[in-house]
Design goal:
nine-stranded mixed β-sheet; alpha/beta; four-stranded parallel β-sheet; Rossmann fold
């Protein structure tokens, strides 16, 4: 198996500076030590992707190459255009690589993993996104464990699609969310179990084959940046304040409501502002503030008003999956009701369809 690494930035490759951690570690040298080269079967020059470094991994039975993106980013600087740069790099090497590892910062890793999953449904290759809570040179760093775990997953049956490996668990990329800034198991998959858990031996979920299927869009248009607003509902939020946040009108708004999608029904509450936004062509998506939730706007009277106003629920999608999906569909030219309808369709395993329950 040939694995292509894409280093996008993040804590994993950072070093100390007078202003704090910044990108600067030599990832190629580190990978060559982490995955020892075997000189018996080197990659020929004709097989090497441009700008990549060849290695033969005797311990894993895999060769690898590495592309370092420029500029390297702290993942807090990631945008939809960054997602597209990674996607373009994956497609550039898809004819030579059997699998991909994207080295990425943890802050927006789950957004990137979800975004990649929508854009790469036609890619017949597995992709694993990973990184670390501590730089690779720090004492007790989790960098080596996460990278070797990602490689192990790819060489031992990870299905096609985009995954996230972190803290000993392989998660579906568009089902993952960051839950901790310090715990070495910093990501979770609230709605479905991990695809695999590292151990002796690894334990693979019976669900792993299910993620091969998708109803995504072949040859999608590239990601471009669209005005998608995310707002948390809090007790006492007024229609005037919400309307101010939605002026000028965005393409879409994600309102993170209570419970299964409940909103206050008072005349001066947010519902009237959402109704006006929907009539103006804004796609209104109601999500939940709960880590584990399935939005059901008709379950309570407090949620029925949002559905009557034209809002759609986010089902059991994470915030990261919901936001990236809106950016993806908006990049395909969708707006208004069409965009809302597509939010309820399963593109890449990001939501649990009602027929599966």
């Amino acid at each position: 198996m040939h694995i292509h690494f894409i280093y996008a930035g993040g804590t994993i490759g950072m070093v100390d500076s007078p202003r704090g951690l910044r990108p600067g570690a030599d990832l190629d040298s580190w990978l060559s030590r982490l995955v020892p080269p075997a000189p018996t079967r080197p990659i020929s020059k004709a097989q090497r992707p441009a700008g990549s470094s060849p290695r033969e991994a005797s311990s894993s039975g895999a060769t690898y190459t590495l592309t370092t993106l420029s500029p390297l980013l702290d993942s807090s600087d990631t945008t939809p255009e960054t997602w597209q740069t990674i996607i373009d790099e994956i497609r550039r090497h898809a004819d030579r690589a059997d699998a991909f590892v994207v080295l990425h910062g943890t802050d927006t890793m789950a957004y990137t993993a979800a975004a990649l999953s929508y854009a790469l449904t036609d890619l017949n290759r597995p992709v694993v996104v990973t990184g670390s809570q501590l730089p690779l040179g720090a004492a007790h760093s989790d960098a080596a464990a996460n990278v070797t775990g990602a490689v192990y997953a790819l060489t031992h049956g990870a299905p096609r699609g985009v995954h996230l490996f972190f803290g000993g668990r392989l998660l579906a990329g568009n089902r993952a969310t960051k839950t901790s800034t310090w715990d070495l198991q910093g990501f979770d998959s609230p709605a479905i179990p991990p695809l695999a858990t590292a151990g002796a031996p690894w334990h693979w979920s019976a669900q792993r084959a299910e993620h091969d299927a998708s109803t995504g869009r072949p040859a999608p248009a590239p990601y471009t940046r669209h005005d998608v607003v995310v707002i948390d509902l809090v007790p006492g939020l007024t229609a005037a304040r919400l309307e101010a946040a939605l002026t000028p009108a965005p393409v879409a708004v994600i309102l993170r409501a209570f419970g299964v999608g409940n909103l206050p029904a008072a005349d001066d509450g947010p519902l009237s502002a959402l109704s006006r936004a929907a009539r103006a062509g804004v796609t209104v998506v109601v999500a939940s503030q709960c880590l584990q939730a399935e939005v059901a706007l008709g379950r309570y009277a407090a949620g029925a008003g949002a559905a009557e106003a034209g809002a759609v629920g986010s089902h059991d999608m994470t915030l990261e999956a919901t936001y990236a999906k809106l950016q993806f569909l908006a990049s395909q030219g969708m707006r208004g009701a069409e965009l809302g309808t597509w939010m309820g369709r399963n593109l890449a395993g990001e939501l649990t369809e009602p027929t599966e329950r």
